[in-house]
Amino acid sequence: MRRLLIGGALGVLVVSLGVLVVSLAARGGSSGSSATEQALQRKADSWEIGQIEKNFHKAVSRKDIDLMMRFWAPHATFTYRLGETATGKKEIRKFWLEESKNFRRTWHMVSETLAYKTRITVNGDRGTLYFECHYLDVKKKTLGPVTAADVDVARIHGRWLVTNFVAASATLST
Q1: By the 8 A CB rule, do 130 and 111 touch?
Q2: Higher pLDDT pick, 31 / 12
Q3: 156 and 132, same structural domain?
Q4: 152-172 pLDDT per residue, tens
Q5: Which helix (H) or strand (E) holds 163?
Q6: Most CB atoms within 10 A, among 1, 115, 141, 150?
Q7: 122 and 95, same structural domain?
């Protein structure tokens, strides 16, 4: 009885392995992916890159420096004024805390963007993100400055992170 049970279990294992091998062969191996899978991956990557923009606005509006620093690559660059660039997370964090108005207690602006003013591209493990920041003074109920961000991103250790961020003025257009 014991031999029959062991033999049956081995038979099931061999059949399961055979099905797996046939399945992989039919797909062309494990490295191949269909156009549908690639399109789904591109959409997932675009969504993840879009979260950088959403978290940027959330971090600025809530004055949450830890959230702000989560999406920067270790050796990222951040050009915040013409000819002025912070390099690495330490310098970038210092800029936000010491030079930017955004993290001051006296700054009562909320930052947001209009969806149609956001553009994302994905090419393998690299991509770009463009968005505008519309600042709203919540106390005065007025529109504040409008800025723009032109961002390079990369998938690093499975996460999309900012590698180069260039801030600039944005012009309002209709």
Answers
A1: no
A2: 31
A3: yes
A4: 999 999 999 999 999 987 765
A5: strand 159-169
A6: 150
A7: yes
